Structure formats: structure tokens, C-alpha cells
Amino acid sequence: MDSVSRLVRLARLDGEVDVRCLLAGRFVLDNPPAGPGIVPFHLVLDGRCTVTSGASAVHLGPGDMVLLPHGDAHRVTATGGPRLPVAEEPGAAFPTRRTPGAEPVVDLFCGHYGFDPGAGALLFRLMPPLVHVSLDPPALTLAEVLRGEARCAGPGTSAIVAALLDALLAMALRSRPEQRPATPGLWTAMGDDVLGRVLADVVERPGETWTIDRLAAEAAMARATFLRRFTARTGTTVAAMVTAIRMMVAADLLTRSEYSVTRVAKEVGYRSESAFGQAFRAALGTTPAQYRREAVRR
């Protein structure tokens, strides 16, 4: 399994559409901060709108998707035409907001991804607060399937939509280099031809000793050159990134395997269970044993 696929699997994503918007004219959609374990998204199939969060704003057109990995409050707006009333209709899988009596200009899917509180939380923490990507043709085909399911919602629609959303996220984040997020983060680094290969090695073999010198050698770069490139692409340090990846794998092992905590520590590169416990608590705010008990309870 490739590293991007493994990271997505570790996060245990669960995509869901909250509402589909078929709107005309000028509109404002305010979204409060998301709760824990929630990453909002907006996917535009037709028309244009703007997503604003804090001081950041992104303009979306057909085939654009925006994620808010930290769950920040945000606003979705369109400025063309007069302000018109909006009515919400219930649906089998999700409701639809429409502008009564007007031909829709914007076709917008608004939803969220739920994620694992361990690996998923770490994954999205490594992403910038606002991620904007443009879907490539294969992903757009999936988006059209999503539109078709929304049109004829029936038995199984919710399950199909969830699977489509998970696939869309993976395809968006592996998109062509010129379409990837420009803000430093894990996915920016994974898209780098050299750093992506190096980080893939860490994901696949987290228990090995990953020093800066070794990573620089794997990248065939001088140490200083590697560090400059790594910081520019990720916005963090090598130690912080390696630790985050190790804790993602550890959280998954604690949840999905019967390994002892000592065995999990060894699998992700820690000789001492106490050192592993300290790193795990620093990353996730709980001990490995407590995390495992909570996972069983969930």
C-alpha cells in the first residue's frame, strides 16, 4: 500500500454530506466552529463562491474543493445578483437548500469528515487551516457520480456518498503538483518528488532510526539543503514530523491490534515504554493504555 493510502486509512475517515445547495443570486452561509473530530468541506460542481475563514479567503469554481482541517468557523458567500429567499427540503440522505422559482447558478455540496481521534487528529493537525485543491478529471468523474446519487437518493445512498467522499479526498490530496496546496504541510511534502519518497519510507518503516543525516542521505542532498527544503515544504521540523507519523501508526496499532504497549513502542521506534508513553501523551493528551481503553469503549 502506498504511503498516501496508508495515511488516509490510518485516519479512519467517515465522509458525510450535511446539505446540498442549489442556489441563485447573492447568499451568505455562516458555519460555526466544528466540534472535535470534525473537518468541514465544501465541493463546488457548478458556479462560483468564496469561502472565508479569519483573514483567509479562497475563491471556488467548478471542480474546486476546500477543507478546514482545524474546524474553524467560516463563511460561504456568492455576490452575483440580488439576495433571494432560500428554502430547505428534506431528503433521504441529506437536505437540499434551493432558491424557489429561480434557476440554480451554484451547485455546492457542504459536509464534513469525521476521523479517528488519534491518527486522524494528528493527520489533520499537520495540514494548514484552509486547504484548497482543484479536482483532476478522474476525481471530477466521481463528483458527477455524487451529483447523480443526490438526484435519485434512495436505499444505499448514504453508504455510497460516504465512499465517494473518502475517495474524493484521497484523489484531491494526491492531485498534480500545480494543484496541490501551496501552504506548507504534510501533503505539500508528500507531493514533493524527493521529500515524498523520504516520508513514505518513514510511514512504511516507522520503527527504524530516522535521523536528519539519514533522511538527507536518502534524499541525496546535503544536510543543510535538505533541512531548508523540508522546512519550506512542511512548515515544521524533521523531529516533529517523524514523531507525528510514528504516533499515527502507534494509535492505529493500539486500536486495531492486540500488541502490548511495549510491542507497539518497539514497532514505532522506541526502546523504552516510558519514553514512548511520554511522546504519546505529548501528541494526544493521554497515555497509550488510556487511549486503547477509550478505543474499545467507542
**SS strand fraction:** 15-25%
Decide which structural class fits the backbone.
alpha+beta
Mean pLDDT: 88
Assembly classification:
single chain
Secondary structure layout plus pairing:
Layout: H1 3-11, E1 14-23, E2 27-31, E3 38-46, E4 49-53, E5 56-60, E6 64-67, E7 74-78, E8 87-89, E9 96-98, E10 106-114, H2 119-125, E11 131-134, H3 137-151, H4 157-173, H5 186-190, H6 193-204, H7 212-218, H8 223-234, H9 238-256, H10 261-267, H11 273-284, H12 288-297
Parallel strand pairs: 1-9
Antiparallel strand pairs: 1-10, 2-7, 3-6, 3-10, 4-5, 4-7, 6-11, 8-9
Helix pairs in contact: 1-2, 1-6, 2-9, 3-4, 7-8, 9-11
3D structure, described in words:
The chain has 298 residues and is an alpha+beta fold. The protein folds into two domains: 3-180, Jelly Rolls (Sandwich), CATH 2.60.120; 187-297, Arc Repressor Mutant, subunit A (Orthogonal Bundle), CATH 1.10.10.60. It contains twelve helices and eleven strands. The strands form two sheets. Strands 8-9-1-10-3-6-11 form a seven-stranded mixed β-sheet, covered by helices on one side. A four-stranded antiparallel β-sheet has the order 2-7-4-5, with no helix packed on it. A hairpin with a 2-residue loop joins strand 4 and strand 5. Helix 2 packs antiparallel against helix 9, helix 7 (212-218) crosses helix 8 (223-234) and helix 9 (238-256) packs across helix 11. The radius of gyration is 21 Å and the shape is globular. Mean pLDDT is 88; it is low at 176-181.
